[in-house]
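@channel sequence for tomorrow's demo:
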Amino acid sequence: MNETYKETFERDGLKLELGLGRKLIPLVLNPAFLGPMRQILQKSMRQRPQNSAIHQSLRAMRQTIFSETGFVLPPITIKDNQTLDPHTYEILLNGVKLAEATVLNKDHESILPQDAIAEQLRKVMIDRIAEVYDWAEQGNAKAQYYVGSWHENFTTEELGLGDLQQNYKKAFEWFTKAAEQGVADAQYRLGGLYHYGQGVEQDYKKAFEWFTKAAEQGVVHAQYAIGVLYKYGYGVKQDYKKTFEWFTKVAEQGDAGAQDSLGYLYQNGQGVEQDYKQAFEWYTKAAEQEEASAQFNLGYLYQNGQGVEQDYKKAFEWFTKAAEQGYASAQDSLGNLYENGQGVEQDYKKAF
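structure tokens (generated this afternoon):
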């Protein structure tokens, strides 16, 4: 299937031409086209390497969408066009101009194509859904995973891509088919359906079994999920030491959520000897990746002098970062600092 799949999805050429002097990084598709796929795109943007070249970011964007949904965007080539004014761009499909615009300021990092490109890409994908569905029914494991993913996540009718509806029972059926053929991501997603009781009766033991199969194939989210099950005793005997082992495994791979969770275990002495300095180190790693919970926890350590010298200004800084992401506990703690004038000038209005 892979070669056929690649050929099918990459037959339409998409070209982005930029005016000189532009520091463009991501290509952000029209929101009318994205619908539920917007979060996937935003995820790929957040995960792009710092100071990456534009083509690297675009490649990462296409790979992320492909791995999450099975959709493959047309190949995007980038060209400096000296005939264009600085800070302008044109988007062409097979040589036909779809969109053009002038970016309002040189520091803006997004290209916002007009509806034309969204409509063209929508047309390209309509036929692809039917093709992949056919492959799934013929027994192709990867296609079965993609169809399950579509049923789990979104309604394609909203995207103008047919009438594929969100249906957890169908997602369960397709993920089961793919998981039994050894598709690791399908095993993880199947475990998730068992865990939350979506499309099937809730069964933590089954969730644990499928998470384990996926984890053994290196699926990081499955490895973290196993740690969570051990932490709360869902489908398995509660075991903080096992939780510590799994969270450590995932945290060492750079996962911010696991780093935050590992910091919590060190802070509270669960599954490991209490160690505020280790908690501080892991919270810092996660906080620097914009993990709101870790930012709050780091602020708490600074506020109370645990694992680090007490520093209300630092506590204020980290509480602020978490609060700006909507983290309620951080907002409350920030109010307390304003009320007591700790790390910031006393301000009752801001406190309340």
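heads up for whoever presents: Residues 1-13, 20-54, 104-117 have pLDDT under 50 and may be disordered.
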